[in-house]
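EI: anyone free to look at a 267-residue chain?
SC: sure, send it
EI:
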Amino acid sequence: MTSLASSWGVLADLGRSALQWITGWHRILMFSARLLVLALSPSSYRGPNLSALARHLVKDTAPILLWFTLLSSIISLVIIHIVVVTSLSYGLSRFALEMVVRVLVLELIPLTAAMFVALRCALPNAAEVAELQMRGAFDVLSAGNAEPLQREILPRVVSGMFSVLLLATVSCVVAAVLAYVWVHGLTAGGIVGYTRTFGRVFSPALSLIFTLKTLGLSLAVGLIPIASVLYDRPKSRLRTSTELRGLVRLFFVILLIEIASLVGNYI
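SC: here you go
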């Protein structure tokens, strides 16, 4: 009898956990849809809302752009050297540039940019939102006829998305230039062949998948950490569990996006 009761207790706990998981994702999806509607509204980019957006764009992008570009350039040079040397040793030098473009530009750099922005900007922004919520700042804004989502939430979400897109774009361009210079040197003789290689890699289908992947990563980084701290109900007064759940959700979505991208690219 005791074992039957314990089994029912375990099943009940699993059922409650599953229900909380589904409810949490439902709240995040509804919040994301609301934020996307606000992001497309012209009123979100007027007056104080525009000032708040500009401030967060500069704060979340300018301090990390140079450092991330330098870091990604160093890592790109290492990977380019490894791929080129390996290709030469196996007699596959004509495929070296294509492999570099696929590994760096198509796969690694967007993923690295998303992870970097998530740890450097999105999670601190989520902590700020949680602090504002605990202090009742959203209630004060509502009493003053200012929409909290447009004034405090939307700028942080948009800045996180913008940071991912900008860092990925700049780093992909830098990696492409470094790959060309490493293989062909500072000459223009290989530009025609290099553009053909890019054309083979970035076919219309792969270009669409790459664009959707980068946009999906930026949306996940911008939305999920903040939505988690807003709509999760922590069991204790500490925010650590809520922020950790947001981080786990973010990594889960990033993993799903990466798997979907790999399936679309290579299957």
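EI: The longest helix spans residues 47-89.
SC: 👍
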